[in-house]
Specification:
With 863 residues, this protein is mainly beta. It has eight domains: 88 residues, Immunoglobulin-like; 77 residues, Immunoglobulins (Immunoglobulin-like, Sandwich); 76 residues, Sandwich (Immunoglobulin-like); 99 residues, Immunoglobulins (Immunoglobulin-like); 62 residues, no CATH class; 91 residues, Immunoglobulins (Immunoglobulin-like, Sandwich), CATH 2.60.40.10; 99 residues, Immunoglobulin-like; 185 residues, Immunoglobulin-like (Sandwich), CATH 2.60.40.10. It is built from two helices and 74 strands. Strands 59, 62, 63, 65, 66, 67, 68, 70 and 71 form a nine-stranded mixed β-sheet that branches. Strands 16, 19, 20, 24, 25 and 30 form a six-stranded mixed β-sheet that branches. This is Ig-like domain-containing protein.
Length: 863
């Protein structure tokens, strides 16, 4: 962006304004540099014109967004934001996604208008009025050639129902997103078997299936299912059969379509396949609910097995012994039978197993029964084998876990154990579990199961096996809560207090997870979340600034996540900003104010918490507090007009009451006042010997009086030979001075009233009169009296020159360090001390004091 300014201010700043929806200052340029608000650098703008006080205003805007559009202008006041001669920035963007408007429900053989409605998004928002959009139309995703108007006209036929219309809008080569057509999803057509049935296993789910009917207006479509006891409503929505679990009694699912008084239905016949657990019969008795049966030796043994299922399952009956199974009979029917009509023998003691299987599906089942043949003979009992515990020890919490105690009888003969079943005893952490005597226990897993050890024993005929090895469950679980170590101390607002620039951490964020969670840290600023430096869940030392509002611990475990934050109260205090008479002067050492003009001082201290602000006046090593406020702002005014005595160093102090944060900034205020007599100080006369006199006239002035403008008028009101020899500052007060004049060797005719003028303006007057010698002396003594004062006068001149040079050097040194440190006073004896010492010298009482008279009466000095 560039333009030429009419002029550039010699003092103050040239401001660049951006106006769009609101007016704001984006940068300010002075002859010494550029500021972007309260910063000297920013990534958004760059001022490239050099030198800074050039009237060629040139700057860059980076990463342009729609909000950067608008009117840019500059000047020395806010009125310039609306003045002519600026630059308009226009930012283009693609138009809004269009909507198509028109009466979509219409009779055939009529004309239909479709309108593509969109809007420009270019900024400023009044810009799009200068531009028109062009349009592109599509039929079934194919572009229509030569159709660039907002509206198209169609001659409607019944075939138009199969077309989908869409459009885009274009501005300055930027094309909008295209409006629909909406996507339709169809469930695949069910696959039927040879009997035109849809095959499904019992317990499985059918759906979703979308049933559509070509109706206009649309039909009302619903679903039902048919069981042996009639029709029932199925769960559906907008013609879609939702997931429906089926059982063997469901024979059909039916779609029903209704349109006004007409209706139609179409069904899907179901072939629900299933297989039940086998039912076992021993010698005419159903024994499926028993573990074993006892048969007397030489008695008949008849076993039957029935398996119900669809389709009809194959059924096999087998004998299991020594880890091997022998198939005794098999049938492709629901039934299988096996008989020992000649009588059972001891060797027939075994476990008999009934198997059922569907040949066309993967459905299968089995059931076993122990048959113990009671025969004569001897047996020997022994304790069972040491058990092993089986089960899926690594499992999710809130699920069920089965643990089985696996052991085996060691009694002889080896088929004897068939007659007896084992009992079991379970232990948790070596403590017997009461009431648990089954082979298998079922546990609802919690995270606390990780601390338990499970073991068991098996018992036969009172003989207990050795205890199994203990097993431990490994429950899998994610975080329930996050814990900070050490625990932060919060204030009343539940925030963690920290000073800007200090470091937070290390803080350990732990989560009870198995396997361990992935723990990381982030911190939140005004522009979003950012990764914080962390390791193994430990937030490492993190320096914070005022923009950081939270530090957040994030824990992730598989698909689960949890977070916990620490809200921060970042406390800070900025350097004070000082305003004198409406001008910001914090970057300056001092300001000059004309005497009798108003003096308004404002001090702003930004901080958190809100700091107390004091304004003080520092003078002669002491500070007087002028005003104090418990707010960011403080004001002090001298509306009646500033005086010379108001010249001082004014200091703005900021302090946070609840923290140890404090700051200060000072500004020298110099009141420009013309020289005049200091009525609060006394005029002095110093003497060495004879007729030499040193007159010290106290004067108030700033800047210090110019020695060349000081003139002594003699009694004849004409400039005299008496001249002011030096002007020195008094007691480090920059507006109080001493005009030093050495008077000697006056002739008789030159005694009388002398007037001191500054720049032709009267300051004061002194009467110098002759005083006769106390007693006459020899001629040689008079010569000595003349010589000695001449020698002393020469010494006085040398000391005076040293003193003046010293005072100027000291003032320059003090000015250099005025805002950073106190000036150390030199220990070398000064001319000022020499003058003070001379006041106490009494040389033969040959002088009189210079006394102050009334304002109209001149001072008298006797020589």
């Amino acid at each position: 962006m560039r333009w030429t300014a009419a002029s550039f201010p010699s003092t103050g700043q040239y401001h660049v304004y951006h106006t769009y929806k609101e007016n704001r200052t984006i940068l300010s340029v002075s002859s010494s540099g550029v500021n972007f608000g309260d910063k000297t650098q920013t990534s958004k703008y760059a001022y490239t014109s050099r030198p800074f006080n050039s009237t060629n205003i040139v700057f860059e805007i980076r990463d342009i967004t729609l909000n950067d559009a608008g009117y840019y202008n500059g000047g020395m006041s806010a009125d310039a934001a609306w003045a002519g001669g600026g630059v308009v920035l226009i930012v283009s963007a693609k138009p809004d996604k269009p909507d198509i408007k028109g009466n979509l429900t219409t009779l055939v053989d009529t004309y239909l208008k479709l309108t593509c409605i969109s809007k420009s998004t270019s900024t400023p928002d009044y810009y799009y009025k200068f531009r028109s959009l062009s349009y592109t139309w599509y039929i079934n995703d194919t572009k229509i050639k030569r159709e660039f108007e907002e509206t198209i006209i169609l001659n409607v036929t019944r075939w138009h129902r199969y077309n989908s219309y869409s459009c885009t809008a274009t501005e300055e080569g930027l094309e909008s997103d295209r409006n629909g057509p909406e996507k339709l999803t169809f469930t695949p057509k069910p696959t039927f078997d040879k009997g035109y049935k849809f095959t499904v296993k019992e317990g499985d789910e059918v759906g979703p299936i979308f049933c559509s009917a070509d109706c206009n207006p649309p039909c009302n479509v619903s679903w039902k299912y048919k069981e042996s006891n009639g029709l029932k409503d199925a769960l559906s929505e907008n013609g879609i059969l939702l997931l429906q679990s089926v059982n063997r009694n469901v024979t059909q699912i039916i779609c029903l379509s209704r349109w006004k008084t007409e209706s139609m239905e179409k069904d899907i016949a179901l072939d629900v396949q299933y297989i039940d657990d086998p039912i076992i019969n021993v010698n005419g008795e159903w024994v499926s609910d028993r573990i074993s049966v006892d048969i007397q030796e030489r008695k008949p043994l008849h076993l039957s097995c029935f398996v119900n299922g669809n389709p009809t399952p194959s059924v096999r009956l087998g004998k299991s012994q020594n880890g091997r199974t022998t198939i005794l009979s098999e049938a492709m029917d629901h039934w299988s039978n096996y008989s020992l009509s000649t009588g059972a023998k001891c060797s027939d003691t075994s476990t008999y197993v009934c198997y059922g299987k569907s040949q066309s599906t993967n459905l299968k089942t089995n059931k076993s029964i122990g048959v113990n043949i009671l025969c004569e003979g001897s047996s020997s009992s022994a304790k069972p084998d040491k058990p092993d515990i089986k089960g899926n020890l690594t499992t999710l919490v809130d699920t069920y876990l089965k643990l089985s105690c696996i052991s085996k009888s060691t009694s002889t003969p080896d088929y004897y154990y068939k007659f007896r079943s084992l009992s079991y005893t379970w232990y948790i952490n070596d403590t017997k579990v009461k009431g648990e005597f089954e082979e298998t226990i079922r546990l609802s897993v919690t995270r606390w199961h990780r601390y338990n050890r499970y073991s068991c024993t098996a018992t036969e005929e009172g003989l207990e096996s050795d205890r199994s090895n203990a097993v431990q469950i490994n429950p899998l679980y994610g975080p329930e809560k996050l814990t900070f170590t050490p625990k932060p101390t919060f204030d009343k607002g539940y925030k963690f207090t920290v000073k800007e620039g200090d470091e937070v951490g290390p803080i350990f964020c732990s989560a009870d997870c198995n396997p361990p969670c992935n723990v990381s840290w982030k911190y939140k600023e005004s522009n979003g979340l950012k990764d914080a430096l962390s390791e193994n869940g430990i937030l490492l030392l993190q320096s914070v600034n005022r923009n950081v509002t939270q530090i957040i611990c994030l824990s992730r475990w598989k698909t689960e996540s949890m977070e916990k934050d620490i809200a921060l109260d970042v406390q800070y205090i900025d350097d004070p900003i000082i305003n004198v008479n409406g001008e910001w002067v914090s970057d300056r050492i001092s300001v000059d104010i004309q005497e009798r003009k108003p003096l308004h001082l404002s001090c702003f201290v930004n901080g958190n918490p809100t700091p107390s602000v004091r304004l003080g006046k520092s003078q002669n090593g002491r500070t007087t507090i002028l005003s104090e406020a418990m707010d960011h702002w403080l004001n002090y005014s001298l509306s009646t007009g500033a005086k010379c005595s108001d010249t001082s160093t004014y200091v703005c102090y900021g302090k946070s009451q609840s923290t140890n944060l404090k700051t200060n900034k000072s500004i020298g205020v110099n009141i420009l006042c013309e020289p005049r007599l200091d009525k609060e100080a006394q005029l002095k006369t110093l003497t060495e010997l004879g007729k030499a006199r040193v007159l010290i006239i106290p004067v108030i002035a700033y800047p210090p009086p110019d020695l060349s403008k000081l003139v002594w008028l003699g009694p004849n009101n004409l400039p005299s030979n008496i001249t002011a020899n030096a002007v020195t500052q008094s007691n480090d007060i920059i507006y109080k001075h001493r005009v030093i004049t050495i008077v000697s060797g006056l002739e008789d005719e030159h005694y009388g009233e002398y007037k001191l003028l500054y720049n032709r303006q009267f300051l004061t007057s002194v009467i110098i009169r002759k005083e006769e010698d106390a007693e006459d002396g020899p001629l040689r003594a008079n010569i000595v009296d003349v010589a000695v004062p001449s020698a002393l006068l020469g010494i006085t001149w040398i000391l005076l020159i040293i003193y003046v040079v010293f005072q100027k050097w000291r003032r320059n040194l003090k000015t250099t360090h005025q805002h950073d440190e106190k000036v150390n006073q030199l220990e070398t004896p000064s001319m000022e001390q020499h003058y003070d010492d001379l006041q106490d010298i009494d040389v033969e009482r040959n002088y009189s004091h210079l006394d102050r008279l009334d304002q109209e009466t001149p001072y008298e000095e006797t020589l």
